[in-house]
Amino acid sequence: MTKKERFAYVLHYFETHTPNAETELIYDNPYQLLVAVILSAQCTDKRVNLTTPAIFAQYPDVYALSNATFDDLFPLIRSISYPNNKTKHLIGMAQMVVADFNGEIPATVAELVKLPGVGRKTANVITSVVHQQPNMAVDTHVFRVSARIGLTTNAKTPLQTELQLLKYIPKEKVHVAHHWLILHGRYTCVARTPKCGECGIRPACKYYGQLIKAQ
């Protein structure tokens, strides 16, 4: 199977079985999504969703958050991983959005990555989820799943993975393909013991093909 054929098979499978895949983070607007994605770094979406309601109740918009103090915000995110840094990042992000972007969450990767706590992955998430831009966010799930299936070859960094995926995924499908790969990695192609027995893309998976050969 060529790489082009592998991509075609995988994308068709996901499009058929989970056509409307979306983020599991709960949010109502771009501000809330940005806060949630910053908090989600090395933390589960479930934990973030348990934490954000109190934050949004106390800081309903970016202006309110820009006026937060460390001592007021920190207790609300104490249960999140790296709470010290994330508290500082959230306040700094809000202050920059207010000062430099008139209180509007930026809509481009180049602008978003200027914000404290926002790297390329987070910027790609915001632009793809909110604006359906063809940007591929690569987290640990996407990185692992892409390599296992054989969608990427010898990709050593998230950026290398991103560029290889963008080469074969049609632009109009990139924003949803990001969620397909994440959810597949979260629930089926899990890190330690992938659930190959219930995986529908086995015929196109390099990892599974190697398992069969080894038997």
UniProtKB/TrEMBL annotation:
Classification via InterPro entries: DNA_glycosylase (IPR011257), Endonuclease3_FeS-loop_motif (IPR003651), HhH-GPD_domain (IPR003265), HhH_base_excis_C (IPR023170), HhH_motif (IPR000445), Nth (IPR005759)
Molecular function GO terms recorded: endonuclease activity
Keywords: 4Fe-4S, DNA damage, DNA repair, DNA-binding, Endonuclease, Glycosidase, Hydrolase, Iron, Iron-sulfur, Lyase, Metal-binding, Nuclease
Catalytically driven reaction(s): 2'-deoxyribonucleotide-(2'-deoxyribose 5'-phosphate)-2'-deoxyribonucleotide-DNA = a 3'-end 2'-deoxyribonucleotide-(2,3-dehydro-2,3-deoxyribose 5'-phosphate)-DNA + a 5'-end 5'-phospho-2'-deoxyribonucleoside-DNA + H(+)
Pfam families xrefs: HHH, HhH-GPD
Domain HhH-GPD: 39-187
EC supergroup of this enzyme: lyase
Cofactor annotation remark: Binds 1 [4Fe-4S] cluster.
Cited Gene3D superfamilies: Helix-hairpin-Helix base-excision DNA repair enzymes (C-terminal) (1.10.1670.10), Hypothetical protein, domain 2 (1.10.340.30)
Residues annotated as binding [4Fe-4S] cluster: C189, C196, C199, C205
SMART domains recorded: ENDO3c, FES
Catalytic activity, EC: 4.2.99.18
Record-linked CDD domains: ENDO3c
NCBIfam families the record matches: nth
Task performed by this protein: DNA repair enzyme that has both DNA N-glycosylase activity and AP-lyase activity. The DNA N-glycosylase activity releases various damaged pyrimidines from DNA by cleaving the N-glycosidic bond, leaving an AP (apurinic/apyrimidinic) site. The AP-lyase activity cleaves the phosphodiester bond 3' to the AP site by a beta-elimination, leaving a 3'-terminal unsaturated sugar and a product with a terminal 5'-phosphate.
Protein family per UniProt: Belongs to the Nth/MutY family.
Protein name in the entry: Endonuclease III
Annotated gene: nth
